[in-house]
Amino acid sequence: ATDTSIAYVKDAVWVEPPARLFARLLSDTLIARTGRMVVSGRQAFSNPGATLGGELRSFGIDAAGNQAVVIYDASLIREQGGKLEKRRFEARVPASAIEPGPVGVALNQAANQVATDVADWVGR
Questions:
Q1: 8 A C-beta contact, residue 107 and residue 68
Q2: What is the average per-residue pLDDT within 60-85?
Q3: Are the beta carbons of 74 and 59 closer than 8 angstroms?
Q4: Do the beta carbons of residue 78 and residue 53 sit within 8 Å?
Q5: Which end of the chain has the least Cβ crowding within 10 Å, N or C?
Q6: If you average pLDDT over every residue of the chain, what do you get?
Q7: Average pLDDT for residues 32-46, to the nearest whole number?
Q8: Which residues pair with 60 in a beta bridge?
Q9: How many Cα atoms within 13 Å fall on the side-chain side of residue 97?
Q10: Taking a C-beta distance cutoff of 8 angstroms, is the pair 53, 27 a contact?
Q11: Residue 57: CB partners within 8 Å, gap ≥ 6?
Q12: For 40-69, how does the pLDDT look when each residue is reduced to its tens digit (9 = 90+)?
């Protein structure tokens, strides 16, 4: 809500933790946009080629700006022994109101924009 306080959207709940939701969205988007198979570290038996990692830095609402904010710091090694690339992806989408429906729509749009940007970066 401010630089020193946090507020919650009344009657809103997460289906599962935001990082897990975003990871699934990113995986689905990578498959759809690049045609590559996506496997987790637990699923891989050998080096899969490219390795993408990252941290979801923000996945929420900026109440002061009335907008959804999704920030993802990605790291990519395109092939075994390749150079590490890092990049920050960020999307901000206006929310018409700080209520569950509009907040969900804005967060969904912001998350999809970030996932699309990451997939395009990986796919080039």
A1: yes
A2: 88
A3: no
A4: no
A5: C
A6: 86
A7: 69
A8: 69
A9: 5
A10: no
A11: 71, 72, 73, 88
A12: 655 545 556 778 889 999 999 998 889 999
Please give the structure tokens belonging to residue 37: 């198979």
The span from the CA of 55 to the CA of 103, in Å, is 22
Answering whether pTM is above 0.90, one says: no
The percentage of residues in the chain with a pLDDT greater than 90, rounded to a whole number, is 48
Torsion angle in degrees (nearest 10) through CA of 26, 113, 52, 38: 30
* 112, 89 Cβ separation under 8 angstroms: no
Pick from 116, 95, 97, 117: which is nearest to 106 by CA?
A: 95
Give a three-class secondary structure readout of the chain: CECCECCCCCCCCCCCCHHHHHHHHHHHHHHHHHCCCCCCCCCCCCCCCCEEEEEEEEEEEECCCCEEEEEEEEEEECCCCCCEEEEEEEEEEECCCCCHHHHHHHHHHHHHHHHHHHHHHHHC
